[in-house]
Amino acid sequence: MDMIDQLKEEPRQMRLMFKDLSHLADQDSPIPIFETSVKIDRLGNLWDKHEEKEERFFKNLQQLKINFPFERMVIEHREIRGHWRVIQKAIDSKDNNKLRIALDTDGRMFIEKLTKHMVYEEMHFDEIQPTKQHLNIN
Questions:
Q1: Is the C-alpha dihedral spanning 24, 27, 28, 32 positive or negative?
Q2: 49-100 pLDDT, tens per residue?
Q3: DSSP class of residue 106?
Q4: How far apart are CA 60 and CA 56, in angstroms?
Q5: Which CA distances in Å does 17 have to 99, 130, 137?
Q6: CB neighbours of 113 closer than 8 A, spacing ≥ 6?
Q7: Does residue 96 or residue 17 have the better pLDDT?
Q8: Pick from 115, 110, 99, 113: which is nearest to 26 by CA?
Q9: For residues 93 and 112, what is the distance between their CA atoms, to the nearest angstrom?
Q10: Following DSSP, what letter does each residue of 3-44 receive, concatenated?
Q11: pLDDT for 27 beyond 70
Q12: What pTM was estimated for this model as a whole?
């Protein structure tokens, strides 16, 4: 799998992982804090690695003067990361009500913004796909 394909696939995995968590906000029973924390940590690790890969990839594109919306990507990453931090703080509080609210509000915003970001990013990845042999990214 080449770099562009990896950068497309990882957000899909994150979205699926988070959808698995988001149903917890709709349940009447207490949210299992430990199990949820483990899942959040796994998702966070994937997110961190994905961002690091993208940042290196974006720097390569910039150095090669490839037209790509770098600023927008960084801004969107920060926005998505903000929702993520709220969820992590709620997990750290071990307060079921705070976690339920965070998953219901910031969790839904996380999924929504990540989905929009994926669509926009993939569109631009597809535009540079024909030139990828010149990018040395396979």
A1: negative
A2: 988 998 888 888 888 888 888 889 889 989 999 999 999 999 999 999 999 9
A3: I
A4: 6
A5: 17, 31, 27
A6: 76, 79, 80, 83
A7: 96
A8: 99
A9: 24
A10: HHHHHHHHHHHHHHHHHHHHGGGG-SSPP-HHHHHHHHHHHH
A11: yes
A12: 0.78
Cα gap 34→54, rounded to integer Å: 30
**Is 136 in contact with 63 (CB distance < 8 Å)?**
no
CA distance from start to end of the chain = 8
Calpha distance 40→89 (Å, rounded): 11
Quickly tell me which residue has 């029973």 as its tokens: 29
Longest dimension (CA), the chain: 54
Q: Mention every residue, 6+ apart, whose C-beta is less than 8 A from residue 76.
A: 113, 117, 120
The residue assigned the tokens 């699926």 is 16
Over residues 114-118, mean pLDDT: 88
Residues 6+ apart with CB under 8 A from 33: 91, 94, 96, 99
Average pLDDT (2-8) is 84
